[in-house]
Amino acid sequence: MNFAYGVIAIVGVLAAIILGFIAVAPDDIIQPRMIPVEEMVVVSEPTTIVEPEPEAEPEPEAEPEPEAEPEPEAEPEPEAETSPMTLTISIPKGVGVPGCEETNECYSPYEISVAVGTTVTWINDDIAAHTVTSGNFPEHDGLFDSSIFMSGETFEITFSDAGTFDYYCFVHPWMAGTVNVE
Ligand SMILES: [Cu+2]
């Protein structure tokens, strides 16, 4: 019988201790039980992954209308050229001896047409000296005369009046040419 009393006594002591704890700090005992429950509730809730609604695709920005290509600026029309304002005539090699007149090659070109205001330059490409003398041999009309100019030298005239200007070389009378100014 002592054993039974002993057990009862122990149980009673334990019960008293437990009741004492509860009395002293009931929350310490109650809360630990409630927290797991809440946690379980939380855990057991199916996790619904809220899929973010697909963002409405942004409307493609209206492509900027290609800017109208600027019309290429009209290139300035080249001023009407009736003829180059400068022109060179060569006195070819070998014209110091007769023969070039047969093919009109004593001045090259031997005849030209230019606009008023054109500057004509003769260059002596021969080894001999020559002239550009206005008129028709042997009549020098006095309009212009280069006088003798040497190999490699030049002589130029700006024709400011219209007309037909014949010229020759007074050293070599067979040499003749014409400038038509229009
Ligand atoms: Cu000559």
Can you offer a commentary on this structure?
The structure is a single chain. By secondary structure, this protein is α/β, with parallel strands linked by helices. Helices cover 23% and strands 24% of the residues. The protein has two helices and eight strands. The chain has helices at 2-24, 26-44, and strands spanning 86-91, 111-114, 119-124, 133-136, 139-145, 154-158, 163-168, 176-181. Strands 2-8-7-4-5 form a five-stranded mixed β-sheet, with no helix packed on it. The radius of gyration is 61 Å and the shape is rod-shaped. The mean pLDDT is 79. The chain binds copper (II) ion (CU). Copper (II) ion binds at residues 96, 130, 169, 171-172, 175.
